[in-house]
Each structure stands twice: as C-alpha cells, then as structure tokens.
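Q: Can I borrow your eye for a moment on a structure tokenisation matter? Would you mind producing a protein record, from residues through to fold? Write it directly below this note and I will take it from there.
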Amino acid sequence: MPWGWGRVVLEQVEFPYEIVYPPAIDAGDLIKKYDVLILPDGVSFGRPNARAGARVNPEDVPPEYRDRVGNLTAAKTIPELQEFLNAGGTILAIGSATDIGIQLQLPIANALLDSAGRALPRNRFYGPGSILSMRVDTTAALAQGLRPVTDFYYDNAPAFRLLPAAEARGIRRVVWIDGPTPLRSGWAWGQR
C-alpha cells in the first residue's frame, strides 16, 4: 500500500518512473539506467517477510512475468546498491526500507534503543499513525519546496541518529524532531 501511494504522487506530478524488480537490481549496471531508486516501506534484504507468503516457483509464473520473481538479499543486492551509490546514484528509502543504511554500514545508529542497546518496548515508545512536527533542512535538494518546520505522518517507522563520522562522509540529516513535544495529531507515546 505505501508504494501505491508513492506511485499516485509520482503520477500526479507527472514524474516518470519505472518499477524495478529484484532480478534487475541484482543484474547490476543500475547507474546506466537510473538516477534514483526509491525503496518503499516493506522492503527487506534477506529477512523473511510475513506478508510475502510462500516462496514462488518461477516455473509456475507465466514466462512474460518471470523477470519479476526474486528477492532482495544482503549478499547480492546490497553490493549492487552500494555500487550504484558510489557511481553517483541516489537511494530514497522509506519506512522499514531505511534499514539499508545499516546494511550499507553508513555512520548512523538506531535512535529507538534504550541505554543497553535494546529496542524500546511499546510501553516506552509507540507512534501508531500520528502527525509529528519536524524540522527540515530546506537547503537539501530532497527538501526543496518544504517549509522549515513541516508536519509528517509517522507510523512506527525506524528513526536514526547520525554518528560522529557522518559529517566527514558528507552525510547530513534532512528531517529531524527538534523538540520534546512533536505530536500534532493522533497520539504517540515516548519516554526516555
């Protein structure tokens, strides 16, 4: 569903796009075909996806659709995406797909961990479909046209903080929570 909404937005602004399936990503040479890859919420690299169901036998798929059958994996896909980035490509990851930053060993850390490094339990942090006010770096190309403080929809997505090495690698934040009370609508629970 998130990618369906993403496609609606791209179509409304008449932005051309192509759906790229795992075999095409794993084949490489992405920079020759694409400037930007958008990884929607739900993308994972080799972790079982409960929503995906049973593995598909390519022989059961009509020949004209077999080039769509496959899985993104850490072993094969991540190196191709790293090569794409190194060649000047851009990857926009949304929701759970932001795990690619950890997979690519970017200088980021999960911001939703307790002091012992464990994921915060729901009784300490929970944001099911809330509108949060966030600060935006409007000088970033990705944020062009946004206001310096903008409301965003948040639904229990990952959140990251930059590590000290980020600046040296040219990595900067574009959107961040800039205060103790970002909730604008809905409800969310957070406790340090």
